[in-house]
Design brief:
heterodimer, A: extended, B: Creatine Kinase, Chain A, domain 2, 9-stranded mixed sheet
Chain lengths: 168, 366
């Protein structure tokens, strides 16, 4: 299908809108879409939310101009990153950006309270084992990247030992 | 758990096409997915290759011990050719996100599919884990139970990121809380022809549901196929979300049946002509663009539902819809095809499938 605007290139962006009970679909090539301020990569996925977040972010910041939040101490995501992509970086971001998020969640979902099933984490023993394995795997990866193969071998054995414990 | 060879299983992951589910003359499929993340790692998009590898390894280890996925196969996306990746997308088994969207194929992304039940997982998608179930016809409740039971199973071993107030934590705040998205793929030619569709679509958006095209977010509506899903994931229980979707979609199915009845009552010859013309074109055309084929298949699907056409079965129509997509056509002819060659191959596939269906109907009536 060719672009509705230039009629030359293949249309890749399909924008469906409902205005006054009328549904219209515009087909645009990436170039014309970009000209109209719609980036092919983001229009399909992120635009409405990131736009919305940008608005929200502004409002939230205006409210507490003085408070500088973040970046997240764990994954280094900043308010700007969040506003630009609409994505948080890690579970810890929910604590770092809690105030802004509460406002955003209320706007998106009409609520901030999880009413669904309460997740019961694995027994502390299993959780601990899993956390230890996760930590060791990261260490192993770093050791391999650093070409420290002696250390990598030791870590690999530790991982095997814990895994054998699970099976046994 | 085995590694998977696409060529060894031609119908891989396509059980939902069999049109065995409730209302499958109108609702093609029901999908329910749950978004989950593991504690202690950045979300997939922000994660470094080592984190992504560790997430995959952690989940795999639990899967090895999962009774529900004992027979499952794992597909590592990186190991698939670009065409095979597109085939997975055409089968609605993976999302664009899992394939990396427009970027290069992300590391340590994987798809897990059970061979017994219609359940599976995407690993290292936008979230670490997307548990999903895809079933034939209109069955939100049973589809939800399948995913829920898998979630109970995996959640008892995997430390999910869960917050006392916000529930399950997800990369995008639009998914947090239950992490549940239920959607139905629904065929609404009656409402489109009677021009009632906009009212219905506007109605569903006012009650907390949303609609998209055949290929999900950002895709176009083609062949009168709409994907209707819940908009919010937080502040309501899973059962409420599922029941609400079930109730509203049930009404839409009812409206669609009424619209079809009105069309048959007021313009029987117009409808019959439309349906047979669609069939005739599909049965004889020598070149078919995908969109054109989808619109004609919509006519045939309507004709089958209204018993205006003796065949093919809905199953055959569903199969055509999957196998006449570009990557599948290229795979069948083992080469890259130009756009006009694709249209020609598509017409060959459709003609052959319909001719086979005709001869099997004929042999049954003899």
């Amino acid at each position: 299908m060719l672009c509705d605007h230039c009629g030359k290139n293949e249309a890749e962006v399909h924008l469906t809108q409902i205005v006054d009970n009328e549904m219209t679909t515009v087909h645009l090539c990436p170039a014309c879409a970009a000209e109209k301020g719609l980036d092919a990569g983001t229009v399909t996925k992120n635009l409405p939310l990131s736009d919305f977040l940008a608005q929200m972010g502004k409002a939230a910041l205006a409210d507490e101009e003085a408070t500088i939040v973040g970046p997240c101490t764990y994954c280094h995501t900043t308010v700007d990153d969040f506003r630009r992509t609409g994505r948080l970086g890690c579970p810890h971001c929910y604590s770092v950006f809690e105030t802004q998020l509460r406002a955003i969640l209320r706007r998106i979902h009409g609520s901030t309270y999880h009413m669904g099933k309460v997740y019961v984490p694995p027994t502390s023993e299993a959780a601990e084992r899993s956390a230890r394995l996760a930590g060791l795997r990261r260490k192993l990866q770093r050791a391999v990247e650093a070409e420290d193969f002696e250390r990598a071998a030791v870590i690999r054995d530790q991982i095997r030992e814990i895994e054998a414990g699970i099976e046994g | 758990m085995r590694l998977f060879e696409l060529r060894s299983m031609p119908d891989f992951g396509l059980n939902w096409l069999d049109a065995s589910g409730p209302d499958s003359d109108i609702v093609l499929s029901t999908r329910v997915r749950l978004a989950r993340n593991l504690q202690g790692y950045p979300f997939s998009v922000r994660a470094k290759p080592a984190d992504r590898a560790a997430v995959l390894a952690t989940i795999r280890e639990v899967l090895e011990r999962s009774a529900q996925l004992a027979d499952a196969v794992i597909v590592e996306i990186e190991r698939l050719s670009p065409r095979e990746q597109r085939m997975m997308l055409e089968r609605h088994l993976v999302s664009r996100e899992l394939l990396g969207g427009d970027r290069e194929t992300p590391s340590s992304s994987a798809l897990v599919v059970s061979m017994q039940k219609p359940v599976g997982l995407m690993i290292n998608e936008e979230d670490h884990l997307r548990l999903q179930s895809l079933t034939s016809g209109f069955g939100p409740r049973q589809t939800w139970h399948l995913v829920d039971s898998l979630d109970e199973d995996l959640g008892s071993e995997l430390p999910y990121a869960f917050h006392h107030e916000f529930g399950h934590l997800t990369s995008c705040p639009t998914n947090c809380g239950t992490g549940l998205r239920a959607s139905v793929l629904i065929h609404l030619p009656g409402l489109v022809l009677t021009k009632e569709i906009h009212k219905v679509l506007q109605g569903i958006t006012q009650v907390g549901l949303t609609f998209r095209g055949l290929y999900g977010e950002g895709s176009e509506v083609i062949g009168n196929l709409f994907q209707v899903s819940n908009q919010t994931t937080l502040g309501k229980s899973e059962d409420d979300l599922i029941d609400h979707l079930g109730k509203i979609v049930g009404q839409v199915v009812e409206y669609e049946r009424q619209a079809r009845a009105v069309l048959l009552r007021d313009a029987p010859y117009v409808i019959e002509d439309k349906v047979w013309r669609a069939y005739g074109l599909l049965r004889h055309a020598r070149s078919l663009a995908f969109d054109e084929m989808m619109n004609l298949l919509s006519g045939v699907r309507l004709g089958l539902s209204l018993k205006l056409l003796p065949g093919p079965s809905v199953y055959v129509v569903n199969r055509i819809m999957i196998y006449a997509q570009n990557a599948h056509l290229e795979e069948a002819s083992a080469g890259t095809l130009s756009s006009s060659e694709l249209d020609i191959q598509r017409a060959v596939l459709v003609r052959t499938a319909l001719a086979e269906a005709e001869s099997s109907t004929a042999s049954r009536t003899e």
